[in-house]
Write a structure and sequence with these properties.
single chain; 264 residues; alpha/beta; 10-stranded mixed beta sheet; 5 helices
Amino acid sequence: MLFRLTGVPTQVKILSMVAQNQVDTVSVILGGEVLRPLPEGGLWWARLKTLIVSDLHFEKGSSYARHGQMLPPYDTAATLAIVEKLVARWQPERVISLGDSFHDGKADQRLADTAIARIRALTQAADWIWVEGNHDPDPPQHLGGRAMSVLRSEELVFRHEPTHERNEISGHLHPVAKVAGRAGTIRSRCFIASSARLIMPAIGAYTGGLNILHDAVTRLFPDHDMAVYVMGRERTYSVATSRLRPDIRAARTGARSLGAAANG
């Protein structure tokens, strides 16, 4: 059943469905295809049994450690656990990883043997496509899967950095929404969709986030053509744009540092 949300553009068609556990879920129609935003941060394309994930940033922790900022070295394992959960649940025939899967060009050399084995198991379980990102323009081949700069499938276009091409699914911006409610505000990773495009949240454990009211995001959604899906613990939630709030940090630090936090 189609329904309309306050603050959500009518040209974005949102399907209300009831899952087996009786929890409401939402889906987006883009390019004539039904796509389901998942609470773990993945996107499920049921018709082609395709799972889309973005911005895994494997070995970001060890990259920071090399430069003197010591972070617990558990981000890759935590991120892999999320991807493994998604693959186990949805049993995809194809997985598209939308770039910045590896935090830098030598991230694969710092992977633990256990992480290498887990990644190879994933890439052997499905047709795995590494879309090239700005952090990993040449994804390592020895871990399995195949690399592409841009993937076009049916009417959809998959790339890392968003452009103004229609029916595009991208990542890169690490979108987060700050949502006002009666008890205060929450800040959570989110999906952003319109009649023309969809931007994925980052899944990587150590990835930062860019508020979706930042100019880098809003310029991709002219005329407020934006629907927002916030990741919850058990489901994704549609949020009215009237409830969105900017980060205070934006006024204090400016766009440059926010962009670095989102994509670093």
